[in-house]
Design goal:
This protein has four helices and seven strands. The protein has one domain: Gcn5-related N-acetyltransferase (GNAT) (Aminopeptidase, 3-Layer(aba) Sandwich). About 25% of the residues are buried. The protein has a seven-stranded mixed β-sheet. The chain is of the alpha+beta class and about 160 residues long. Helix 3 packs across helix 4. The chain starts with 6 loop residues before the first strand and ends with a strand.
Length: about 160
Amino acid sequence: MSNNNIKIINPSKEDSKGIYKLIKRSKPLDLNSEYLYLLQTIYFNETCMVAKDEGKVIGFVSGFITPRDQKTFFVWQVAVDGKYRGKNIAFRMLKALFDSKPLEDIQSIETTISPSNIASQRVFEKFAGELDFDKEIYVFATKSDFEEAHEDELLYMLKPKIK
């Protein structure tokens, strides 16, 4: 399980089952349908990354360029297998994604994070620091916006510092 052997690449259709299983065991992330992860690997694979160790999916980042603003990228999910956490894999996947050609014109990043998801908060704090971006946080959705039990979701907006 050397960090050097972990490959970070755009996912392929064959990765969709591994992504689904990863998200399924990555509480507190919301598990979407297998079909959605299949669609992401086919239609949105250029805006997603997987981390693989010996061919096994051990990390996943998904997102999309927002329809309202082609300069903003929304990070949908970030997951890293429990045995691989603390090895900077989430950060490396985000960095690889934002260094890729499809995202070369992106100027700001958005994501939602529930208040209890400290690990994701730390990843995006570090990422904002690496990019020298300012961070703004707003309430995106409250418990009352969901049918089933769900925490609030906070919108993290990362933008270049105004100089």
